Amino acid sequence: MLVSKEYVAYLARQVTKKLIEGEFIEAPHLNATVERVNAAMLEEMQLEDRINDEVRLILEAYQEEMRTTGASYQEMFKKVKQQLVQKYKAVL
Length: 92
Description:
By secondary structure, the protein is mostly helical. The protein has helices spanning about 5-20, 30-45, 45-60, 65-70, 75-90.
């Protein structure tokens, strides 16, 4: 993840504050709302890390085949990652 969890928590507080001020949401329990926004933001920001981990697992399974065919790990990583991004309909 490119940003720290502390920064995500700060962003969650600010986003929640702005949504309440703009009357987009009502939050009778501010702390619970901030926690839910924080959890959602963390989940979304960690998506790329999870995709990268899945790509590594896939490529590890095909490591020997890639070695015999001379396939570039970096190129295969990009291709598999792009396929997974499309599969999960993620925006990175």
